[in-house]
Design a protein that fits this description.
The complex is a heterodimer. By secondary structure, chain A is mostly helical. Chain A is built from 13 helices and no strands. The longest helix of chain B is centred in the middle third of the chain and has 16 residues. Chain B is elongated, with a radius of gyration of 23 Å. Classes of the chains: A mainly alpha, B alpha/beta.
Chain lengths: 272, 285
């Protein structure tokens, strides 16, 4: 890793990271704040969601609370962690990764970096490290906002071990997407394409997961979707468990995409 | 550079390009647009990789040992792309952190000589000021090798003169300077040797003085009356306008040519050395 590139990248992103963290922190606090209202009208809430097919409910991220009443984890999973939050963090990741390499090539500033005494691998890892820090900060801000508000409002939550496990799963899940987005960023010379490719990866992955859940004949397609391995947040939090193979899949994606990204970046011509 | 070949798909970049730059010299690299100058520079800096051939700089391989070479290299691209939301000083201070600061030139002094104010945001700089910033970042660590691609584009004449003075001072300190330019007068003025590149290949590498001495003399003669065609046959006439004739001749043939011209009554005659521009154009005509 090159410290000058790492610090400069962090310096140019700290405001963006702060903005995302602030937004997610406040939104998580807000959802936690309105949870008691949703819980108190729980019967209606449950009835509404019971009318939705179970496969769609699963895809939307809430299952447990429908059987056990409106738990905090089920509410948050459905309203935030399975869908909206993933979109918000992916927006940060894809925006960051597309600028990291392809953006520098498009802007021509990559020439300034390549003419310094650093290897392309150092450039790649310095940028990747800032992306990882951003992800950790975003996940931390989200969960911090939630947990702080639950303690303030005296809301009963699942044992903290489940939250720790979910934080780790979410971080691995988002780093997998970051690694894939960085890989695409090394392949192209325009920021637009570097945004589109990982966006397609996420959307197609989500659609495959949904499709596999809705149609029993195509159930095995789920293995192809990264969202399958992310699972349902409330289930991970309340049971404090996840199939280890899911974590290994994330690690596998991170390793393969990172190696592919480095190899592509090292081999490609950069005519700036 | 040794037998370097680079194609972009089917488009030729350079082909079997070979030349050597001596340590401590200012080496001019001449060629029109599309001749392969920038491709050669990109190859030297390992931005792109050749299909064949290799480049050795300070005994290091330009591809395998790129970071080691870049530690001692300053580079200015033809059109410098810099981070628009950084201030000039911020960029310079950041780039200083990549290398050892021992022996580096004073930033304040460089800014003063090149008449550059580093306080502002890069996006607010004119193209000339961006070029000055690019020059300062390349010069500030006192590089052993300076690779310059059209470095004086956009600079005013006073700053150009100051920049030439900095180059001369760096050269005296042992810096090797690779100077790619369209401005043939400046190349003639500051370079020790030049390479002329045509269609991706080097067609001449010579000391500037030798290149001029080896080249034809230019003779411009005005006769008192229009001479007949036959009397001037076999002469290398480049331009003819009534009583005036321009021609070129080798130095060894000058006496014979003057004898031929002297058969007519001469009103005026000028014999001149060719400029680098004249020589360059003879390769491209």
């Amino acid at each position: 890793m090159s410290w000058p590139i790492f610090w400069q990248t962090l310096k140019s992103y700290w405001l963006t990271i702060l903005f995302y963290c602030g937004g997610l922190f406040l939104y998580s606090m807000f959802l936690t704040f309105i949870y008691p209202v949703a819980r108190d009208v729980g019967t209606n809430y449950t009835e509404i969601f019971n009318k939705i097919p179970v496969q769609i409910r699963e895809a939307m991220g809430g299952t447990n609370f429908l059987d056990n009443g409106l738990s905090f984890e089920g509410f948050l999973s459905l309203e935030h962690l399975k869908f909206f939050w993933v979109i918000a963090v992916c927006a940060f990741i894809i925006g960051f990764a597309s600028r990291a390499i392809a953006g520098e090539v498009e802007q021509g500033t990559i020439a300034l970096l390549l003419s310094q005494p650093v290897t392309r691998m150092q450039i790649f890892f310095s940028k990747l490290a800032v992306g990882v820090i951003g992800i950790v900060a975003l996940v931390g801000a989200t969960m911090g906002g939630m947990l702080w508000q639950t303690s303030r409002l005296d809301i009963a939550i699942a044992p903290i071990e489940g939250y720790w496990l979910f934080i780790n799963v979410a971080i691995l899940f988002f780093i997998s997407i970051l690694a894939v987005a960085m890989m695409f960023s090394t392949m192209v010379a325009e920021r637009g394409r570097a945004t589109l490719l990982p966006l397609l990866f996420v959307i197609i992955s989500f659609v495959i997961d949904l499709f596999a859940k809705l149609n029993g004949d195509w159930e095995n397609l789920k293995w192809l979707s990264i969202f399958h391995y992310y699972g349902t947040p409330d289930s991970i939090i309340t049971t404090a468990s996840i199939d280890d193979s899911h974590l290994w899949v994330f690690i596998g994606i991170i390793v393969v995409a990172t190696i592919a990204g480095i190899v592509i970046f090292n081999r490609r011509d950069i005519a700036v | 550079m040794n037998n370097l070949t680079k194609y972009y798909g089917r488009v030729r970049g350079v082909e079997q390009l070979s030349f050597t730059v001596n340590e401590g010299e200012i080496f001019g690299f001449l060629g029109p647009n599309g001749a392969g100058k920038t491709t050669a520079i990109r190859l030297m800096l390992d931005f792109i990789r050749p299909q064949a051939g290799n480049i050795s700089i300070f005994g290091f391989d330009a591809h395998r040992d790129a970071p080691a070479i870049h530690r001692y290299t300053g580079y200015v691209s033809g059109e410098p792309f810099l981070y628009p939301f950084m201030r000039g000083r911020e960029l310079l201070n950041w780039l200083r952190t990549f290398r050892s600061r021992s022996g580096e030139l004073s930033l304040a002094r460089l800014c003063e000589i090149l008449q550059f104010d580093p306080k502002h945001f890069i996006k607010s700089y004119s193209s000339g000021n961006r070029k000055k910033l690019a020059l300062i970042q390349a010069l500030m660590h006192r590089p052993r090798l300076l690779i310059l691609d059209e470095p004086t584009n956009g600079l005013d004449p006073i700053v150009k003169q100051n920049f030439y003075a900095i180059l001369q001072s760096l050269k005296q300190g042992g810096t090797t300077i690779f100077f790619s330019s369209h401005d043939l007068a400046e190349v003639q003025k500051i370079c020790d040797r030049v390479a002329i590149i045509k269609d991706g290949r080097v067609v001449a590498v010579e000391e500037v003085g030798n290149l001029i001495n080896k080249s034809n003399l230019s003779v411009e003669v005005t006769f008192r009356e229009v001479p007949d065609e036959a009397s001037l046959a076999d002469l290398k006439i480049t331009e003819r306008n009534g009583q005036s004739v321009k021609l070129q001749t080798g130095r060894s043939e000058i006496n014979a040519v003057l004898a031929r011209l002297n058969q007519h009554s001469i009103a005026n005659i000028t014999i001149s050395q060719p400029t680098l521009e004249d020589i360059f154009l003879t390769w491209y005509r």
